[in-house]
Structures are given as structure tokens and as C-alpha cells.
Amino acid sequence: xxxxxxxxxxxxxxxxxxxxxxxxxxxxxxxxxxxxxxxxxxxxxxxxxxxxxxxxxxxxxxxxxxxxxxxxxxxxxxxxxxxxxxxxxxxxxxxxxxxxxxxxxxxxxxxxxxxxxxxxxxxxxxxxxxxxxxxxxxxxxxxxxxxxxxxxxxxxxxxxxxxxxxxxxxxxxxxxxxxxxxxxxxxxxxxxxxxxxxxxxxxxxxxxxxxxxxxxxxxxxxxxxxxxxxxxxxxxxxxxxxxxxxxxxxxxxxxxxxxxxxxxxxxxxxxxxxxxxxxxxxxxxxxxxxxxxxxxxxxxxxxxxxxxxxxxxxxxxxxxxxxxxxxxxxxxxxxxxxxxxxxxxxxxxxxxxxxxxxxxxxxxxxxxxxxxxxxxxxxxxxxxxxxxxxxxxxxxxxxxxxxxxxxxxxxxxxxxxxxxxxxxxxx
Amino acid sequence: xxxxxxxxxxxxxxxxxxxxxxxxxxxxxxxxxxxxxxxxxxxxxxxxxxxxxxxxxxxxxxxxxxxxxxxxxxxxxxxxxxxxxxxxxxxxxxxxxxxxxxxxxxxxxxxxxxxxxxxxxxxxxxxxxxxxxxxxxxxxxxxxxxxxxxxxxxxxxxxxxxxxxxxxxxxxxxxxxxxxxxxxxxxxxxxxxxxxxxxxxxxxxxxxxxxxxxxxxxxxxxxxxxxxxxxxxxxxxxxxxxxxxxxxxxxxxxxxxxxxxxxxxxxxxxxx
Lengths: 427, 272
Description:
The complex is a heterodimer of chains A (427) and B (272). Chain A has helices at 2-15, 39-52, 63-75, 91-97, 103-107, 117-122, 168-178, 196-208, 225-238, 251-259, 270-277, 320-330, 336-341, 349-352, 355-360, 364-372, 384-399, 405-422; strands at 27-33, 55-61, 83-87, 124-125, 142-143, 145-149, 154-158, 265-268, 289-292, 309-312. With 427 residues, chain A is an alpha+beta fold. Chain A folds into two domains: 2-151 and 306-372, D-Maltodextrin-Binding Protein, domain 2 (3-Layer(aba) Sandwich); 154-305 and 383-422, Periplasmic binding protein-like II (D-Maltodextrin-Binding Protein, domain 2, 3-Layer(aba) Sandwich), CATH 3.40.190.10. Chain A is globular, with a radius of gyration of 23 Å. Chain B has 272 residues and is mainly alpha-helical. Chains A and B meet through α10, α17 and α18 of A and loops of B.
């Protein structure tokens, strides 16, 4: 009889891993972007499976396809995915459509002081700062997602040649000092290709000059003397220290110029550092690079740009509780060091500011400074991609000398306003 | 089956073009009328016109000239086979890969083209190919020519094989030079094929997309933002599906009209 009781007890305890958790699902299915963003995630998955006994299947899609697949699955409320990672500019669409499970009201997620407040702001909808899209203002704010990839843009410089620049004036002084196209050595490399690349590069300059694209009621305020000054600086002053042809440079070209020792300064995203700039098998500048916060504009404002990938649970998931358990586990202080060592881009203060970690990953400190600046996000609207396409065309034209900075700003502002009007942002 | 594959998407597209993409409201021809007021659309149309004209002219003249040259001068079977094989390679290269290769050729600092120009001591070794509107247009057209001139060559070359050898020889005995031989003996065998080539190449170049997106992304500014690239921006950046559907119908109508006009000529050629 005693054996029977023990057997029943063992069988019952095997059904759930922890108190309060439902029975283990056969697996969790997670939609992710194909590429380096999931390196850290892949490194920690075996740990999770060992600890929890639940398999996680990663379904990888190229960047544009992932968005389309997610939207299609959400519209059908399909149980295709239990978890997903989403680029932060997708949050306005996902948040306003109500496609995700709120983590605070559903599971009682408690905020952690080891996580930068901006991370929670980014995963919340409606956004706690800046303009809120029409029809969204009255909704209660909920936390829908937590960062997995703590991407943020900051500045890199050759610390063996120049000092860490604090302002754009310092950047120009550094560039002047080392710029010699005959060597060749270029003072500043610009990722200037049309669309998203040039906008990722120009936004920190634009904002640091005190300009904005929208005011708090979505009125387009881009056509300002600050914006023209920012674009004149970017397309004229900074460009004279850039390699020829940067109008068509994307991330790969930029990282190549730096890694081959031909450029002394430039913006950078973390994944490009581990993959190329500090990768001894492809880079000539390992150990020679310094990393610092985005430079301040004339008024002293710094504007590092965020590009986080966020973990979230779609409403259609049949395994929401276990998906939440995974989010807690993957973003925990216990797992983050293994995630970082495995090639992931972490986001916790304790990891980014640890002296040990900074020895191995010399850019973590700059990431921590950028996230606590706090980093800026793209305007929280599902129309952002249109805005980026419009502005990205004109900034690229200004960089190529096809439009003057004044023309580029004026035309972009007029086209953005026309688009926002059609999108129903003005009465 | 045909209805499901062709008619349904077309009808669905027409339905989309008549509605406001956000509200789903019926708006009549508003999306079409909007195109007349769209400066960017006019720019993309102009750029497409330049692209189509340049690509077609170069491909047809060069393809035909090469076909004549090989037909008249190379007799060896294996040499001809080698030429076919070489000419098939560009045609089977995916356009995206062609765009990537071209990017590596035209990049000003470490690109192959500038390196070759500099090494040969020729001018232009410092050209920023993809940063100026004229040279960026040249670059995207050159990829099209590289990929599709061989198609013109192969079709024309096949056509030339049908020219009766004795007729050509008789003409030469009568003292006909290269041009007269072409005009009076060879061209009649090629004219209907050239029309066919024109139809295929026109509809293809009019819808050009892949390699442009990779090579210039439509830049610098909007100078290589051809109709399909602009349409892509309207559909997948602006998510204005109503307007995108209207523009895509425009592309369909122009391509179909060109097809109809050219195939009328083709019909006449064949019956003559």
C-alpha cells in the first residue's frame, strides 16, 4: 500500500514542474528572426530544456517575413506560436491591435531594479512618453513585452589614435586629426544607404540638435532650423571625413571600413562588434577600439537610438503560462551571464556594468550608459516605416548632394504630413 | 483552375484599388485619381522610362550584333557550344545575386571596377558609381544588360541558323556587303523573333525590381526608384494597399497594351 501511495505521489509530482504551473506542454514554439540576434538564445536553450524539461522550437524567418507571418497569425488568432521576438518599432502595431498577452495584469510581473526603466517603457503600450496614436490615449497602460536583445546604438572610435569624443565638435576635431584619404584613413564612416540605414545613423544627430519629427500631438515639427542644422552638419561637415560612396553604405560596408583599419570613428550596433569589429579572424583592430555614448549636440543633448528585440506572448498561444515562465527564466539575472557569454546582447545592469564582463566585451559599459541616458526610441506609431522611408529618401538625397539640407527637410516634412493626414492622425 | 489562379487575384486587386485601405470604405476611382497628383509616381514613371529605353536599346543592338558576329565568323562547333554556355550563366543567375555582385563591382573604394580603371591608368577610377544619379542609372541598367543581352543573342543566333546557306552565299557572290546581306537576307528571318524579344524584354524591364533593390535601394535619393520599387514602398512601407493595388493595375494595363500592340505586329510579320 505504501508503495502505491509513493507511486501515485511521484506520478502526480511529475505532471507539473513547479507549484501553480499547468502540465508541461510537449513544446513551446517561438517565432524568431533569422540571424545573429538569436545567437545568445540558442546558447541558453539547452540549459532551459535540461532544467525545465520543456523543449523550445525556434522557427526562424528573415526580417521582413517574420513581421508578415506574425501579423497573419495574430489576425487569425492562431495558436501557431507560443512566444515571439519582435523588433521594437513593431510594438505600436502589436500593442494597439491588442495581439499580445499583458504580462503584468495576467501573470503579475513584478519590475526588477536591475533592469533599465527604458526597457519597461519600450515594452509598454500605450507608451509612457511622447505622442500616443489617436484612439490609444484612453487605453490602460500594460506591459506586453520584455527585452531579450538589448540593442542600442553608440559610438566607436580608435582609442589608439583619438580620445573618446563627448560632443559632435569632438568627433569633428578627432576626424580632422586622423583623416588622410591617401593612407587611406577616414575620420568618420557613415552608414548612409537610403531608408532604414541612413535614418538609424541620422536620428541620433537630429535629436541631439534638439530637433524632433513630431510634437506630442503628432504635428510634424521637422521643418525647423535645428533639423536643417543637424542635416547640414551630417551631410556636409561630417561627410567630408567619410569614405567616398557612403551614400550607399549599409552596416556591412561600415563594419568592413572599421575592421580593416580604414576608418577611425563611426556609430555601431553591438552585434556588429562581436561579429566583425572585435572578431580576430576578420578584424585588424581588435583591442584598438573604444566605445562611448552617442555624442552631444550643440545644446548638450545626447540621443542614443534603441533597437531592442522584445520577448512576448501572442494571445492565440495555448501555453501562455509556460511561455511566461520562459520569459522570466531567459531574462533572469541567473541566466543573463550565460546568455551574454554565448554571444547574446544582454540588457541587465548587473551584466553590462560588471568589470569581468567588460574585460571580455569592452562595449558593455557604453551600452549601459546609452540605455540609462535614456536611449531614444522611434516615434511610437505603426506609421513609422512610412516616415522612415520618406525621411530616409531625402536624407540620402542630401548626403548624395542631390538636395540641399533645406530642401530635404522641407520635402520630407511635407510628405510625412501628407502621409499622417491620410493615416487619420489629424482631424 | 485558371479562374482561381488568374481571375481571383485580379478581381481581388481591383476590389482593393476601389477601397480606402484603412476603413475598407468604397472610394470609387479616388486611388487612381491620386496617381495624377503624385509627384513621386511621376518621377518613378520617368525613371522607368529611361531604364526601359536604355536597357532595351543596348540589349537588342548588342545581342543582335554579337549574334551576327558569331554566326558569320565562328564555325567551330565546340567554340559555339562554349559561347552558349558562357551566355547562359548570367541568365540563370538570380537577380538578387546579380545585384550583390554588382554592388561589389561598383563600390568606389574597394570595388573591382575602380580598381581596374586605376590599374589601367584610365580616367574615372575615383567615380562614385552609386552616389550620382546618372552613374547609378548606368549601374542598374548594366546589370540588366549583363543578364539579358545573352537572351537576345541566343534568340537571334537561333534565328540566323534558319537562314538558307545558299541564299546567303548567292548574295555574297552577287557582291552584297555585310549590311546588305543583313538587311535583305538575314533580317527577314529575324524580324518576328526580334519582336518577340521586344515583348519579353519590355514587360520584364518595365517591372524591374530585385537587382535594383539590392544595388541602389532606389537611391541615391529617389533617382532609381522605378515603378515596382515605388509600388513596393507604397505597399510594404506605407501599407497603403488600396493605392498600391491601383498602381499595380496601371502596370498591368501598360504591360498588356504593349503586349497587344507588339503582338499585332508580330501576327502581321508571321502572316507576311
